[in-house]
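thread from #wetlab-drylab

HS: before we spend reagent money on co-crystallization trials with manganese (II) ion, can we at least see a predicted complex? here's what I'd submit
DV: go for it
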Amino acid sequence: MAASKDKLATYRARRDLDRSPEPAGKVGKKKTSGGRTFVIHKHAASHLHYDVRLAIDGVLKSWAVPKGPSRNPKDKRLAIVTDDHPMAYGRFEGVIPEGSYGAGTVMIWDKGTYRNIKKEKGRLVPMHACYQRGTIEIFFNGKKLQGAYALVRTTLHDDNWLLIKMRDDYVSYKPAISDSVSAVSGRTMKAITSDAKHKKTAKRSKR
Ligand code: MN
């Protein structure tokens, strides 16, 4: 199990988890019944971006997607691999303090389950194999995101992938997916930020 412990080493090394409200977490169980968890964070760091996270083998495999997902199959959205995150990160919404890695407000933009749909010779290719090969095909069942998407590694750089909507009934050519509020708390980015500030002030005045 040493290898799976190491999965979160980068995540921990980059953060001072005493200073940041982000979860420490640990590598979760591999087996998932029904769908697997996915979460998409909207993250107002130095550059606003979306973090697409898929539960694969007990961790949340993660990609930073500067422009976020699209429903238009013609859009190829750059998705840059970031460190594996603990499963508990799927419940994190709040503010990473200034001076910390990834400082800024984090919203759970979407959350739900996904299904692996990548087949070869009529058989499903296991998710970890899809990840290793850089050819993921999944079906999202979220609050905002629905339908089939491909995540494919480019040949130019190992960490650069593309997130592309596959053709199905959920394709849309409208410009943007409504993204103003959290899929779990209904809060805007502004509200998440000010809630965190109030929490801090309350803590301070308690002392
Ligand atoms: Mn991020």
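DV: Residues 2-206 form one domain.
HS: ok that's useful, forwarding to the group
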